[in-house]
Amino acid sequence: MKPFFILFFLILQVPSAFATTQETNDLFEQLFEKHALVMLLLDPDTGEIKAANPAASEFYGYSQQALSQMNIANINALPPDAVAEERKLAELENRNYFVFSHILSDGTTKTVRVSSIPIIYRDEPTLFSIITDISDYRATQASLWHYQNRLEQMVAQQTEQIATQKNHQLIITSLIIIVLGAGLATMWFILAKSRRTEYELQLERKRLDEIIRGTHVGTWEWHIPSGELVINERWAEILGYQKHELIPASFETWQKLCHSEDFARASKEIDAAFSDSNPFYECEFRMLHKDGFWVWILAKGKVMEWDRDHNPIRMAGTHQDINETKRLYLQFEHMAHTDTLTGALNRVAFKQRADIVLAQARQQGAHFALLFIDLDGFKKINDTYGHDAGDSVLVETTKRMGQSIRNSDTLARLGGDEFAVILEYTSHPEDAARVAEKIISSLNQPFAIDDQQHAHLSASIGIACYPDHGESVEQLLNCSDAAMYYAKKSLKGGTYAVCDPDNHATTSNNRGKQSL
After folding, report:
1. Side-chain half-sphere of 64: how many Cα atoms within 13 Å?
2. Dihedral-angle region of residue 371 (phi above 0 means left; psi in -120 to 50 means alpha; beta otherwise)
3. What is the pLDDT of residues 471-484, one digit of tens each?
4. β-strands 312-321, 294-306: how paired?
């Protein structure tokens, strides 16, 4: 029973641990090195021994280094056809282990029970095997079989004598007493063995509880028909509670604490685990902490018991606090999509947003406008006052442009002194032109360099409208860029120009209307 419960734990814990942090890898390696059970890590394809723990070295009589250079076939005394036959027999008997004969370094052959599960270890498929010496148990079985066989032979002989000699009643009585005594002795042996097994099972459960506490993860077991949820202390601690505050726990307890936006997604993952499409359940969601803030949880689990109609009865798994990991991920994601100086979207994020707006416009038959903005006179500010002053002006420029557009619009810094704006649901170039004028007007105000100095700049803006001036983001960018260039070079900057697919543009500001 020992390997069964260890495998039960590893199925729930080890694969997820190998997929998450180096800390859990180290914990598994400590468990592997220090556990008294004989453990091997094997290549599932070749049978090469990747690693052996000290218990394996002591059992086989080889050093750990020597074992790690051997193949399991060097140890297995059975020929390949006998190994294949044992695997078929285990499948027919629905066993989760195999019985082989292993050769020790001194030539001794031991009968062993091998329990194996596939895992991912150091990013490689690995067969994790636990070897238990059952030689004494098999010898005891054989002795009992021979003893039983001898008894049967004795009974047969005595029966023949009774049939021929009816006066041998005393012999029959003696045989009955012997058989009863043997039966009582066998029952006593089985009872003692059962008690020993139960004691070892309790010890193993205690070890597993200690290992789970060492991994610092919450555990849960869900009885699906009743909704009853069994949790450990750590499950409650992650959310700031003591275990007794959440007992009795149920599926509704988790649903109540789970973020409503995440619950629907998590429920779909659970439903998938109830089907044959995905035997494992894994999901990230937020749960409400006792102090009122949200905690990101990584939940993993598996259905452990089914009824005859293949309906799930019992599911078990873990909860892991990934709040800090999630915070760093969201921070890095924000940094990857944001211009570090101005806080506006960067070019990559702008392209992604533009693709989304374009797809929505195509689906809804809507319009939008794209403004390409280039600052006039920014290089002079950099050359005159220095790059620190230039950076300060860029930050203020971004702020003013953001105040000139709607919250639903998108502002991005494409690089240097180039910016872009997406005006959603803008049907006419005249509407976009009004926004362009507002941006130009806001930038015409002086920029404070210090208490005594002020800088001045303006902007040249090119306007392109979907779908009139292009049906792709690239076409709209090229068209608005060309219009901006016309406003800067031909109209001397400080104004805007509307793109025309036939290379015609018009401008409209306080100077009046002009054409290319």
Report:
1. 11
2. beta
3. 999 999 999 999 99
4. antiparallel
